[in-house]
Amino acid sequence: MTRMIARFRDGSSFDLTLVALALAYLFVFAALPMLYTVVMSVQKIDMFTLGTLARPFVGLRNYAHVLAMPVAWRVATNTAIFVVLSVVLQLVIGLVLAIYFRQDFPGASTLRGLFLAGWVMPALVVGAIWRWLLAGDFGVVNFLLGSLGLIKGHIFWISDPHVALYSLIIANVWLGIPFNMLLLSVGLAAIPADVYEAASLDGASAIQRFLFVTLPMMRATLGAVLSLSIIFTMQQYDLVAALTQGGPSNASNVAQYWSWQLSFETYDIAGGSVVAVVMILVVILVAILYVRSTRLEQQA
Amino acid sequence: MKRSLLLGIGLVITGLYLFPLYWMYVSALKSSQDLFAYPPHFLPHHIVWTVGQVFVQHEMATYLTNSFLIAGGVTVICVVLGTGCARVLARYRNRWVDVALFAVLMTQVLPSSLMVMPLFVGFSEAGLLRTPRLAVILAQVAKVLPFYIVLTRASLSQIPAELELAAMVDGASRIGAFFRIILPLARNGILVTGILVFLQSFGEYVYARSMISQDDLQTATVGLSAFLGPNTSDWNGMMTYSAIYVTPILIVFVLLQRRIVSGLTAGALK
């Protein structure tokens, strides 16, 4: 017994305990629930069987049931548009801003830091603010676009089924820009200055330097930032709840919100679990790509 | 000359980006007529101070207290559970550490809105929903603990292992070296990461909304969502509520901005 205590105090057992505690917590409160979702997605669940674990097994019938819903394809397309457009816009704007604030002028790093104000705010509050900015009648965005001559009349950002999804994307891009910009600045800072000097001496123009020096040297960072933005965008629930609630009539619904709606609003827990399982698989696939690209970067 | 031009454009870009924040504060201070003026006034004509009224009417004291308790609980559990784990993962470099890190990263990416259903069912089976704020804390810790471990690991790996070894040569136990050498050196990193965890949990929404049914136990996010129905019209109340809610967050952010930036950049890509 005393030997065990001594080993705990001085040997590796102490280290092992520290790691095991945290991992055990994550196992109970993250891994187990995830497995439980998979289990629920192949069970018949109703109000009577909710309290027990032993529910009737129904195979893939829940999956067929969800795929047969007419909104399923709508939601799948919406999710794809939401993720792709958000991620591309965040990356492009983030990269432009990161390059701009790399330049040498007073206050550059302070200004860059101020962008993170968007990142520390609760996403639900950001959604509420955009709800007001994008309001159809009195919203300031409609006014600004109108006075620049870009639109005639008013766009009903939230209630028009053709644009509701895009107002979600606008708010989500705003929310994601700081993080993209910050990580890309780190990547830019890691490129040694003499590479640029050598390229300039060889007569490369600014555009050529960007295409043939910056982009290739940033490949690993771009990969990591891209996968992180995809993951964050697929986690975005609060903005949907604040702006459109998936409406009007699912025109702006995305999978991570739909899954919640199925489970908590229509009590179709099996259906909600099916959507969750599919989403979790996609997220984990992206996360594996992320880990691989950070590996590449460490080796480089 | 060129540098001040760059600064000028930089200020304009930052101003454009932060315009939504400005608009929130201005709208919170406007009178109703002012608010519905079209074209909108970019400066308020009459400042109407409704902060006290909104704060009392929407029971913000209760909501903010609940958010504060939940965020505080999450932060304490995270720091207690995560710091040691981060230290060990920073200190060794082998296959098992890689496996552990990979497992931690994988739990970080799971979306809360998908995890809430199994957690809800599991918690209700375990009777945890009778203490709903504790249930939210437990769920939210699983969400932010990986983030805490990854960032703290990055700041801890800057402390050389030799310091710990030297302390042990001088007769300290490993536990003693951890508490008396490593923790004091890592204090700043732990503080900043802890604050980030706190801020994230202070704005938590989906767990609170799904697991807490009693109104007097609800968080400030759920209180805000009362404004967000399909036919919103109380813009002034909504923006005042938002402003009261985020001002303390923004003050903390401005005070710690430099450290938050360096803490995030150190951890995010390693």
UniProtKB/TrEMBL annotation, chain A:
Keywords: Cell membrane, Membrane, Transmembrane, Transmembrane helix, Transport. It comes from Acidisoma cellulosilyticum. It comes from the Bacteria. The keyword Cell membrane applies. Residues 76-290 form the ABC transmembrane type-1 domain. The chain crosses the membrane at residues 12-36, 80-101, 113-133, 140-158, 164-189, 210-232, 269-291. This is Sugar ABC transporter permease. One of its GO terms (biological process) is transmembrane transport. InterPro entries: MetI-like, MetI-like_sf. Its main location: membrane. It is found in: Cell membrane. The keyword ATP-binding does not apply. PROSITE patterns: ABC_TM1. It is a multi-pass membrane protein. GO terms for cellular component: plasma membrane.
Automatic annotation (TrEMBL), chain B:
The chain crosses the membrane at residues 5-25, 68-89, 101-123, 135-156, 177-199, 238-256. It is a multi-pass membrane protein. The keyword Flavoprotein does not apply. CDD domains: TM_PBP2. Keywords: Cell membrane, Membrane, Transmembrane, Transmembrane helix, Transport. One of its GO terms (biological process) is transmembrane transport. Signal peptide: none annotated. This is Carbohydrate ABC transporter permease. The lineage of its organism: Bacteria, Pseudomonadati, Pseudomonadota, Alphaproteobacteria, Acetobacterales.
